[in-house]
Amino acid sequence: MKFLLILLLSLGSLVNVNAQDSITGKWKTIDDETNKPKSIVEIFEKEGKYYGKILKLFRTADEDQDPICEECPPEDDRYKKKIIGMEILKEMVKSGSEYSEGTILDPNNGKIYRCKIWREGDNLKLRGYWGPFYRTQTWLPGQ
Fold first, then answer.
1. What is the gyration radius of the CA atoms in the chain, in angstroms?
2. Domains annotated on the chain, with CATH
């Protein structure tokens, strides 16, 4: 009986650790320059890879509430498409406790960055690489 109880508790803690490593769900993106919320992104798994799409933008009253991606590269299928609903995170692959090998698009400047994501507590850390340079953002659990 004690063995069964110990086994069940051990399995429960393993499931909790795996859930804590997951990046799926809704995340509030925070601008790394202004520290203000920018959007809500939903990350989901599809065929063993991870993708993220914008569900909501936090915009001021004087900004376009439903913008299109004017800055996206013309050869990209997201060029001149609505940013809300746009898949900005593509083809991330889990490797240990990190996710990498994919890309992220910044619709504000149209740049596509190589990307790495990892969990830090309840938050996500997302690093976009442009050549040898990089930017890191913290994303918070979203609503």
1. 18
2. 23-141 (2.40.128.520)
